[in-house]
Design brief:
The complex is a heterodimer of chains A (358) and B (382). Chain A has 358 residues and is an alpha/beta fold. Chain A is 25% helix and 19% strand. The relative contact order of chain A is 0.14. Chain B has 382 residues and is mainly α. Chain B folds into 3 domains: 178 residues, Cytochrome c-like domain (Cytochrome Bc1 Complex, Chain D, domain 2, Orthogonal Bundle); 135 residues, Cytochrome c-like domain (Cytochrome Bc1 Complex, Chain D, domain 2, Orthogonal Bundle); 50 residues, no CATH class. Classes of the chains: A alpha/beta (358), B mainly alpha (382). Chains A and B meet through helix 1 and helix 2 of A and helix 8 and helix 11 of B.
Chain lengths: 358, 382
């Protein structure tokens, strides 16, 4: 029987390995805790880009992405303490889109905090969004961690108020990822002053998590993977021993360490950046982009999208990415190297090589 | 034994099973299929295959003495129990899943609708001891028979060189798997057309249907056709909105059972076949990942015209119903609620009635010529 059992064991073993790498809440690798009572998890959904076509018709693909992420967060075990929605609920900031998105999000069975994205903002400068979700920047404390949510997608007043004949055109100009008519995102003086006052009241040993839509670090200005006053925000975070910044907008996985600040991006539920140049067979509603790139599975609409849940056990974030049609990934702070690292793929030898032919 | 010899044996053996008296062709897999690869520790031989066939048809390996593997995988029904919705086990107990064909199962990378078994050898262990299938408490009654029955003793000695206690379920399942690997069937009108260069092998509707299969229908993405062969499956798992649609509000409660505690595959085997609602969670029960909620293995489409009804739960009666389900974007009736976990590949196709007919015509061109003949002959006799 030995051979027979061996093959079965190997099969089960490989099944378990896949399960552990994917999102199996019961097999979480726990970080050593300062105090078990402080350990908690939360889920993070972002960039749904709910898009109105006309009447009661919305782009099905984006709807399905958000519906699925919402349903899956409800299945998490252990249950997350809350959910963050990372911005760009809508595509063009209309009431119809925000209402439809809010309706889908109402399926989420947890307290949800919302972040402003540029696609939510530039039609009416966040007015309707605020009616639905409340203030555009705020803070809250949860089990010993201080959370700050910023509206980081503001820009120069001249661009916002004087450049465009209509609000609709302003929205369209900011909605184009690589549109040269766009303008760099920023948090702005008013919010930075508020942030400074807010952080002044927090002891410097308290873990701080700052949540924004655009990265509070400068990655690529051409695509607005950028916040103009990022350095000034970083300076405000410098005194804290544990500071983490979480952002959406980029529709891909980033992680980085600048000084004491750890940066993580989250995935989109709508589409990946970048995505393939052509998408055959049906009208696709993907925005125009000038940078072509391949994608593993153009058939499978959820491919290269996802959502994440986060273990904030030690005041550091352990980011678990739930990636459809792909192996899940975990990026966690490595206390030895002092930076976030992918639990599996950090070692170059373990990376999956890109596809070189089509 | 050389692989050449094996190839010719496989081709021959299918022809024999299909009941057609056709002369031996060149030693090769049937048109449109790759050669079958047997595991290194279970090479085929004529004697092993014959023993496997005998074991496959043995009814004494069930608690009532009436159920054999062949009951639900019948030779004259393309190795299914068509037209049953779900299979009949001991005392006419029904399980939750539609009997999949064994034809070309040699090419599947996992077994069972949820892929919970890694090989034909492993798969053969489970139905014997499932309470709604063959109903044995353990495998001991099988071993008692194969160790004492003179015909079996002789055969096991000849094939494996083993007698008495040395004969175990390993030998039993190896012989059954060796037999199952001979059940290959290609050479359909589609194969003649696509791989054989016979442009007259498909009619006009079937040719239009093939174009729809590849393009507008998006079928090809999961029901794969390669350059020289076609298994019509990607050997993967997808939530296409069958079964799961019936339990939508219960998914959290049902899923929690698997997400919270790790069930052994033996427990999963019993659970999913005895509880219809749990069954609809699909591969989640095996991998415990969200991605697999309500997902089931892509079945091959070869000989699909002979194996109605369709889907893992046999809920769609005709090929037309199956195509309409896909055309609706993962719901059987238009307007029904799409399930939250639907595979990203499934979306409304906007096929016209005529296009649906063409696709069905194409699916009917996937019947192996040998089986089509015996099916016709069988129907005439009735």
């Amino acid at each position: 029987m030995r051979d027979f059992n061996l093959s079965r064991r190997q099969f089960l073993k490989s099944t378990a390995a896949v399960a552990a790498a994917g999102v199996v809440p019961t097999s979480l690798v726990k970080v050593a805790l300062a105090s078990p009572a402080e350990s908690f998890t939360f889920a993070y959904i972002s960039d749904a880009h709910i898009q109105h076509i006309k009447g009661t018709s919305f782009v099905r693909n984006w709807d399905r992405g958000l519906i699925r992420a919402a349903a899956e967060t409800n299945l998490l075990e252990p249950k997350p303490d809350f959910v963050l929605f990372g911005g760009d609920l809508a595509q063009l900031g209309t009431k119809a889109e925000l209402d439809h998105g809010a309706e889908i999000m109402s399926a989420v069975g947890y307290k949800t905090y919302y972040v402003m994205g540029e696609h939510d903002y530039y039609l009416d400068l966040g007015e309707y969004w605020s009616k639905l979700f409340g203030p555009q920047y705020y803070s809250f404390d949860h089990k010993g961690v201080h959370f700050v949510v910023l509206n980081s997608v503001l820009t120069f007043d001249d661009w916002t108020f004087n450049r465009w004949p209509t609000a609709e055109q302003r929205m369209l100009e900011m909605a184009g990822l690589d549109n040269p008519n766009g303008s760099p995102f920023m948090v702005g003086d008013k919010q930075r002053e508020w942030l400074k006052a807010n952080l002044d009241k927090v002891s410097k040993g308290t873990p701080v998590v700052v949540v924004s839509h655009s990265p509070l670090q400068k990655i690529y200005k051409g695509w607005n993977f950028w916040t103009e006053d990022a350095e000034q925000i970083q300076a405000l975070l410098k005194p804290f021993s544990k500071a983490t910044v979480l952002y959406g907008h980029v529709h891909q996985i980033h992680y980085n360490q600048i000084g004491n600040i750890t940066f993580h991006s989250v995935m989109a539920t709508a589409w990946p950046w970048p995505y393939p140049q052509s998408y055959a067979q049906a009208q696709h509603h993907l925005p125009e982009i000038t940078v072509p790139i391949n994608r593993a599975d153009p058939f499978f609409e959820r491919d290269a999208t996802g959502w994440q849940f986060i273990d904030a056990a030690t005041g550091r974030v352990t980011m678990r990415y739930n990636l459809y049609n792909n192996t899940g990934r975990t990026v966690a702070f490595n206390t030895t190297t002092g930076r976030p690292e992918d639990r599996i793929y950090q070692d170059p030898a373990r990376r999956i090589l890109p596809q070189l032919h089509y | 034994m050389t692989s050449k010899w094996l190839g010719s044996f496989l081709a021959l053996s299918l022809l024999g099973i299909a009941g057609a008296a056709v002369a031996v062709g060149p030693p090769a897999a049937p048109l449109g299929l790759p050669p079958v690869a047997a595991p290194a520790d279970n090479p085929a031989s004529a004697e092993k295959i014959a023993l496997g066939k005998k074991l496959f048809e043995e009814t004494r390996f069930s608690s009532t003495g009436k159920v054999a593997c062949a009951n639900c995988h019948a030779t004259d029904k393309a190795f299914t129990d068509s037209p049953l919705t779900t299979s009949l086990g001991i005392n006419d107990l029904t399980g939750t899943r539609n009997s999949p064909t064994l034809l070309n199962a040699a090419h599947f990378s996992t077994m069972f609708w949820d892929g919970r078994s890694p090989s034909l050898e492993d798969q053969a262990m489970h139905p014997f001891v499932n309470p709604v299938e063959m109903g044995l408490k353990d495998h001991e009654p099988i071993l008692a028979i194969v160790r004492s029955d003179p015909e079996y003793s002789k055969a096991f000695k000849q094939v494996f060189g083993k007698t008495g206690e040395a004969v175990t379920m390993k030998e039993v399942t190896q012989a059954i798997a060796a037999f199952e690997r001979t059940l290959v069937a290609g050479n359909s009108p589609f194969d003649r057309f696509y791989f054989g260069g016979d442009s007259a092998a498909l009619n006009a509707a079937q040719k239009r249907g093939f174009d729809l299969f590849v393009n507008k229908g998006r079928c090809l993405s999961c029901h794969a056709v390669e350059q020289t062969t076609a298994l019509f499956t990607d050997n993967r798992f997808h939530n296409i909105g069958v079964g799961i649609n019936e339990i939508q509000t219960d998914v959290p409660a049902l899923a929690r059972e698997f997400l919270k505690t790790k069930a052994t595959m033996a427990e999963v085997d019993i659970k999913v076949l005895s509880d219809k609602r749990t069954s609809e969670l699909g591969r989640l029960a095996v991998t415990r990942t969200f991605e697999d909620i309500g997902s089931f293995k892509t079945p091959t489409l070869r000989n699909v015209a002979l194996t109605a009804p369709y889907m893992h739960n046999g809920s769609l009666k005709t090929l037309r119903e199956a195509v309409i389900h896909y055309n609706n974007g993962g719901v059987t009736k238009q307007g029904e609620r799409v399930n939250d976990f639907l595979s990203g590949g499934i979306r409304p196709l906007d096929l016209t009635d005529k296009e649906i007919d063409d696709l069905v015509s194409f699916l009917e061109s996937l019947t192996s010529l040998e089986l089509a003949r015996s099916d016709k002959a069988g129907r005439k006799e009735k």
